[in-house]
Amino acid sequence: MMVYKHSNGFTLIELMIVVAIIAIIASVAYPSYQDSIAKSRRADAQASLLELAQFMERHYTANNQYTVGNTNPVTPPALPFTVSPKDGGAVFYNIDLAIITATTYTLRATPAGAMAGDNCGNLTLTHTGVKGRTGSLALNQCWRN
């Protein structure tokens, strides 16, 4: 009668199967993670645009116009911050007043840094609350409620 010795450990085939399973899971999980990161950065920029819209409305209430004084060309008010996130660190959006007159404005968030190639492009918000984007994704994918 033959006696077989059982060795402890894993065979090479078992290890290769585990590595393949991990690779498949990682190939699905990593793009989903990157998409979630982009959505959170976009949401931060949207919150910044909405906060600056409130600032512009307070300025309008106090001065009866969105601009500063009656100069030609018009002088926009100094925005309290011009980057998103506004708490420092890496900048993912630069924010400015794309269009401003005494009675209208359009705030614009331009992707920067890691968001530079974002498919939503620039995010915009007008004085009437109209939300926009310049990229190839649909508006409801870029501005989520």
TrEMBL record:
Q: Which UniProt keywords apply?
A: Membrane, Transmembrane, Transmembrane helix
| One annotated GO biological process | type IV pilus assembly
The UniProt transmembrane annotation reads 12-33
Under the heading SUPFAM superfamilies, the entry gives: Pili subunits
Return the InterPro entries for the record: N_methyl_site, PilE-like, Pilin-like
**What Gene3D superfamilies does the record point to?**
Glycoprotein, Type 4 Pilin
Concerning PANTHER family, the annotation shows: GENERAL SECRETION PATHWAY PROTEIN G, TYPE IV PILUS NON-CORE MINOR PILIN PILE
Protein name in the entry: Serogroup A1
Q: Which gene encodes it?
A: fimA
